[in-house]
Every structure is written in C-alpha cells, then in structure tokens.
Hints:
The chain has four helices and 28 strands. The chain is mainly beta.
Amino acid sequence: MLNSKVNRCIINPPCQNGGTCTSIGNSSYMCRCPEGFYGFNCEKMDACSRLPCKNGATCSRTGNNTYSCKCIMGYFGQNCSEVNRCIISPPCQNGGTCTSTGNSSYTCRCSEGFYGFNCEKMDACSRLPCKNGATCSRTGNNTYSCKCIMGYSGQNCSEVNRCIISPPCLNGGTCTSTGNSSYTCRCSEGFYGFNCEKMDACSRLPCKNGATCSRTGNNTYSCKCIMGYSGQNCSEVNRCITSSPCQNGGTCTSTGNSSYMCGCPEGFYGFNCEKGNA
C-alpha cells in the first residue's frame, strides 16, 4: 500500500524569504519567518523591522512592506524625524510665543518690551523713557537714545529750556537758559526785575539839575535834589541860593520857582537892592 501523506515542506517548500517550514500533517505545515517577514508563507515584508520610526516613535505594520509611525510629542513627519523646536526645547524667551515652521525651524512672536530672533533682547523704548514728545530709538539690548524736540534736552528730554518753551523775559529782555527750567534775563534799558517785568522810571532821567534818581518801585522814583533846587523832579530853582540876587546886604526870600524878593537894608532900594539913596 502506497503512503498517501504529502510533506509539503519537502515536496513544494512553501515558506518564502528564508522561512523555516515545519510539517504538521498531510499537506499541512507552518512557517517560522525570519526577522523582517511575516504572513502564512513569510511572503510579506515587515517594514517596521528596519526601525524606520525615529525619536521614540511607535511603528505599526499597515500591510506588506508598509508602516505608520506614531510620534511622541515634539516630533512629526513620516518617520517622526522632524523636530518641533517649540516643544522639544522652547527657544522663545521672555514670554514669547513660538510657532513651528518646519523641521527644527520656528518663529517667535515677542511679548511687548522684547525683540530679537528668540525675544532675548529687551526693548528699552517700550518703557517710554523719552519725554515731552521725543522720539525713542533702540541702540542695542536694553539701550536707547532720545531725539528731543526743540526746547527740551537731557538723556530723556526731560529738561526744559524755558527760553524756548515759554519765553519769560518781557519788554525785549534777552533770555539765557542756565539748566532745567532755570534761566536769567538781561533786560533792555529802562526795565528791571527777574523777568524784566518792571519799568525803571529813572531811565527816563526825570531828575533835573544834577539830582540823584532812586527807583522806589515799578515805574516809580524819587529825586534827591542838590542845594538850590526843589520839587518832585528838582526842576524848581531857589534863586536865593543858586545866584544870590540881593545886593548890598539885602535879605533874599524865595517865593517859588525862580522867584524871590529882596529885603533891602537902610539906604538901598530896588528889586535887587541895587540902588542907593542919594
């Protein structure tokens, strides 16, 4: 009697790609596949055996020689080889917002007060250091310069030149700035005071006949007359003193501006006692 049992492993070896065949009965068998292959006859290639998924990703077979990778956070791409820097090593400093733009590339949107590729630099102008309408320019990390408008000076344009901003010198006075908001006025002739606001009445030379003029206030004065003169402006003449008109020992009495009368001694007469009795 003929043996009718067939050993497929010998008659027609079914296991492909180097698989090991084991007969388990008439025409029945099983294949033990080498690494990288699977399927009943080891006819399918296990793409995951080549370890295509990188950076800790999980590989799943999806068919013959096909696969998919499940990436861990911070990696992407078919093989999880592309890096999301925003997650793996956040580069944006000082509260900046990171946006991934591709493998290891990114952009940072900086918080107010910071700038630079990674928002690593401080924008000193964000603190508004420049005053009085000045323009602030960044000159480096946390440094700035101010361009002052006319009438202001100093590092932050906080110093005021009063001579320009609100000219204080009146009546044609010349203003000189001496520091922040301080100044001096050189007054035009006829004026005085800190802001040249007062009128010097003596500048009009009201006191006559050699009298001395003294200011007594804004646009007021007094005259100190020399002997022989009187009146507010020393314009009234006492002839009895300035040009003793009474002759021959006559006594002079002033009766007003330049007027007088003479008291003549016995034996003389006339307006100036210039006449004698025969």
